[in-house]
Write a structure and sequence with these properties.
It holds the Pfam family DUF2812. This protein has 461 residues and is an alpha+beta fold. 51% of the residues lie in helices and 17% in strands. The chain has a 7-stranded antiparallel β-sheet with strand order 7-8-9-13-12-11-10, with helices on one face. A 3-stranded antiparallel β-sheet has the order 1-3-2.
Length: 461
């Protein structure tokens, strides 16, 4: 891009092409003459200020699966030039012409009913397809949001997945609601024999500012998600579908528009490429996630300021043969660490074999309360399910044992706000103190005073 040119990104709906005319005229008056137009990108060339009139003419007589009919485009261009208009540039939707203000030219598209029909047909072939795809994405996104779980607070990528449908919906509303309103309003005008009305330049400017503001917020959220993902490859993986879809889509589009094939051939080609891409993509993602989980097993670093239980705390002299550290964080839960140690062999008599610590530090106590309650709700539902299964098989003893698995621990003895034993043998507990949550699991009895003192001393309650 040279110093004499300027590139502008501008989202323009099919129904806003008259607004585009006014925009181009204002730019020309400022000394910026349109030289090239793509779908949402305008390229201007610096010139002397000019007082000219633009005519943006919709010309789209194919479908996304058709090779362009360049002969029809050429005939239409010659017709407009014979009517007194000078050709400026074009893309797959628009043929753009201009004339000096003092030059007479025959108006293009003067019949409201015919113009409305043309706009409607082009909209159904272009933007409407995009709306359906986006609508499907939004439905899937909101379904995911309905399955929101307390554990989604532990990473920015999970939070991003939850809130992104809302941002996308707002962006789509600003992009497409004016178009739908235009069709409803002008359908009435056509029925009454009136001229078509278009969105004003000022209204379009306001909508553009609002849309770009929402996009900016969306980009910031995306950045936060990606910065969380650098520690967890699953965060990066979440963005791969959109990237792959864009690359494959652009490849298919360019092939269709540059290689002259039948519509049937192009449809089969797109379906084949899509299926092959989906298979390869799914396989690679599955492999990446497996490799990610393996990498967690080899990570044994725990931040020095965070205390976790170790086998040596309970008098075990041998070094653990198996251990891992799983670390996550988000803007709501700054620290989440899952640390595990195991001897990797059969334990001797009275020897502690395994110990694990999940340390959760939330932004405030309210968030910690939500996480704690969510965890306990899931534990109780699992317990209720097991109780029903035992009763169905007639094992009432097991059912009764399961009913007593979850019990409160002594808050004063542990010096915490609240906590629960999660098994009859008291080998697993969850405790909360202010905005900190610990989930401890080992082959020890956490109700014994000696064990409690070890935990309090090591974890520094």
């Amino acid at each position: 891009m040279s110093k004499d040119t300027k590139k502008v990104i501008r989202f323009t709906s099919i129904t806003e092409y008259k607004t585009l005319e006014k925009y181009l005229e204002k730019k020309a008056a400022m000394g910026l003459m349109l030289s090239e137009i793509k779908r949402n990108t305008l390229v201007f060339k610096k010139t002397a200020p000019r007082d000219i009139t633009f005519n943006v003419s919709l010309f789209y007589h194919t479908t996304p699966f058709d090779y362009p009919n360049y002969e029809e485009e050429k005939d239409y261009r010659e017709l407009c030039e014979d009517s007194g208009w000078e050709y400026c540039t074009s893309n797959e939707l628009y043929q753009i012409f201009y004339k000096e203000k003092n030059v007479d030219a025959v108006p293009i598209h003067t019949d409201s009913e015919e113009e409305y029909r043309i706009i409607k047909n082009i909209f159904l072939k272009t933007d409407f397809i995009g709306m359906l795809v986006i609508a499907l994405m939004l439905v899937m996104g909101f379904i995911q949001a309905l399955n929101f779980d307390y554990s989604d607070l532990f990473s920015n990528i999970s939070l991003f997945v939850i809130i992104s449908p809302a941002f996308l919906l707002l962006i789509i509303l600003f992009l497409y609601i004016p178009t739908l309103i235009w069709f409803i309003r002008n359908k009435i005008n056509v029925a009454r024999g009136k001229d078509l009305v278009y969105i004003s330049y000022r209204t379009k400017l306001v909508l553009t500012v609002m849309t770009w503001s929402l996009i900016a917020v969306y980009i910031i959220c995306t950045f936060l998600a990606v910065t969380d993902g650098y520690k967890n490859i699953k965060g990066v993986i979440a963005f791969i579908p959109a990237i792959v879809s864009f690359i494959v889509g652009r490849y298919c589009y360019k092939r269709i528009k540059t290689k002259k094939n039948t519509r049937k051939h192009n449809i089969i080609f797109v379906l084949t490429v899509s299926i092959i891409t989906a298979i390869i993509f799914t396989s690679s993602i599955t492999m990446s996630i497996m490799l990610t989980f393996r990498s967690f097993e080899n990570n044994d670093d725990v931040p020095e300021e965070i205390k976790v239980l170790e086998l040596s705390d309970f008098g075990t002299m041998d070094e653990p043969k198996r251990f891992h550290t799983h670390e996550k964080s988000s803007i709501l839960v700054p620290v989440y660490i899952d640390y595990y140690e195991s001897l990797g062999r059969k334990a001797d008599k009275n020897e502690i074999m395994t110990v694990s610590t999940i340390y959760i530090k939330c932004r405030n106590k309210s968030i910690a309360d939500y996480v704690f309650d969510g965890y306990m709700e899931k534990q109780k539902k699992r317990s209720e399910k097991r109780i029903l299964e035992y009763k169905e098989y007639g094992d009432l003893e097991k059912a009764k044992e399961e009913e007593s698995n979850i019990s409160r621990l002594h808050n004063d003895l542990w010096e915490v706000d609240r906590g629960y034993y999660l098994w009859n043998n008291k080998s697993e507990i969850i405790i909360q103190k202010d905005n900190i949550i610990y989930i401890l699991d080992s082959d020890v009895d956490f109700s014994e005073e000696e064990i409690i003192n070890i935990c309090k001393q090591k974890l520094r309650f």
